[in-house]
Q: What sequence folds into this?
């Protein structure tokens, strides 16, 4: 019997369009003999839609048409079945069963643990990072704190809340300047280089912070890596076993890789974007074997320490002159699911997708084997007027 796979994409994120591209690439590559694909598109206003026309990229150019023909749906669990239901209908034809969801979403509300928490709460199995891994994978401060503690090399950094900065900016600036210029300021939980600025002096630092504060309450400031080469690697697996893709080198005409560099490439927005596959990249990266080995070893450590599942991409900053390798960030649902790094290892896209789905099924089974609740009679002993409260529970 075919596995019924709900592919979730879109979402309330600056990377909405990238998610559509990644999801459509994936839906066209998933083996149709083994899987029934059910597209579930989350519009920018948060409404969920389903319908086979959502597999066609052209529909997204005309949202009115999409809303007219796609069905608004809700996902829930009933009697051990996972149901996607047409909001406006209650007939048999309005119900689609789902075996497992595959979130192919980038950034806020899709990759950052929010969606994973929702799926977890309603009890629907899903692929890729679980809630915890997704949360730490989105928050650049959490990620770097955990990595630093796990012996994964990261650049020196400081962080603060906008609230504390507004109370006493000078105190925070003083702390940041101890890292030494040039510095790079980043909103902690965004992505795609939005709100990120490099600064060389006090006034630029203050400006960069004002900019970053527009996007997040939590701000990260790091020292800038010099003689920079950026490389990425993809890791596939779970906490027990991992495999590594080839390493890619990513180039940029700017000092920092921008949204355009990453997704729009040479087309400058005029032609159809190919997602991450269009960025300027050199595969394999032109780095010495010694550094490549370091990237491989650090990638495994970085993956395991965040307890990731499925496919991720881990991005590195390398100071080539001083031969220093730093883990910069993890993408727990990477653009294009990093397929272009795996087909160089002889793992074609359908096989990669199948591995991700199987890892999701395994993760669900593993979790179900753990105990999550105890049958107790605490509530039956509890009296609402408080006169016979249960021992040990203080009101
Ligand atoms: N510490 C750093 N030193 C030098 N360049 C950096 C540093 N951190 C980030 N960059 C540059 O900025 C880009 C975006 O930063 P990154 O942390 O990857 O954020 P995002 O989540 O937006 O991709 C990187 O691809 C790199 O070009
Ligand atoms: Mg990045």
A:
């Amino acid at each position: 019997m075919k596995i019924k796979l709900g592919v979730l994409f879109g979402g309330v994120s600056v990377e909405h369009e990238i998610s559509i591209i990644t999801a459509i690439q994936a839906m066209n590559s998933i083996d149709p003999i083994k899987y029934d694909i059910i597209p579930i598109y989350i519009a920018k206003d948060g409404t969920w839609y389903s319908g086979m026309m959502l597999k066609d990229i052209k529909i997204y150019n005309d949202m009115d048409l999409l809303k007219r023909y796609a069905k608004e749906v809700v996902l829930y669990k009933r009697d051990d079945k996972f149901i996607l239901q047409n909001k406006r209908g209650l007939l048999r034809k309005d119900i689609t069963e789902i075996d497992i969801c595959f979130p192919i979403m980038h950034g806020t509300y899709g990759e950052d643990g929010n969606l994973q928490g929702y799926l977890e709460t309603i009890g629907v199995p899903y692929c890729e990072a679980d809630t915890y891994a997704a949360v730490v994978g989105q928050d650049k401060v959490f990620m770097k704190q955990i990595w630093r503690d796990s012996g994964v090399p990261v650049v020196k950094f400081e962080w603060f809340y906008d609230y504390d900065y507004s109370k006493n900016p000078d105190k925070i600036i003083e702390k940041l300047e101890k890292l030494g210029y040039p510095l790079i300021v980043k909103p902690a939980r965004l992505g795609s280089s939005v709100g990120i600025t490099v600064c060389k002096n006090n006034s630029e630092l203050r400006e960069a912070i004002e900019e970053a504060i527009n996007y997040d309450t939590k701000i990260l400031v790091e020292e800038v890596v010099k003689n920079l080469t950026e490389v990425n690697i993809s890791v596939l697996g779970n906490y027990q076993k991992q495999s590594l893709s080839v390493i890619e080198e990513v180039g940029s005409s700017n000092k920092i890789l921008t949204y355009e560099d990453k997704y729009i490439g040479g087309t400058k927005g005029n032609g159809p974007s190919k997602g991450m596959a269009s960025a300027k990249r050199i595969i394999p990266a032109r780095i010495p074997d010694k550094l490549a080995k370091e990237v491989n070893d650090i990638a495994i450590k970085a993956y395991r320490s965040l307890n990731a599942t499925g496919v991720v991409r881990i991005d590195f900053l390398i100071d080539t002159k001083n031969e220093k390798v730093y883990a910069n960030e993890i993408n727990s649902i990477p653009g294009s699911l990093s397929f272009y790094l795996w087909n160089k290892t002889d793992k074609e896209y359908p096989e990669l997708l199948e591995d991700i789905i199987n890892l999701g099924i395994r993760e669900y089974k593993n979790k179900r084997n753990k105990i999550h609740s105890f049958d107790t009679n605490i509530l039956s002993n509890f009296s609402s007027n408080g006169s016979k409260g249960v021992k040990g529970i203080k009101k």
In short: Residues 155, 184, 186, 191-193, 196, 222, 224-225, 228, 230, 256-257, 315, 317, 328-329 surround adenosine-5'-diphosphate (ligand 1) (CB under 6 Å). The first strand starts at residue 3 and ends at 10.
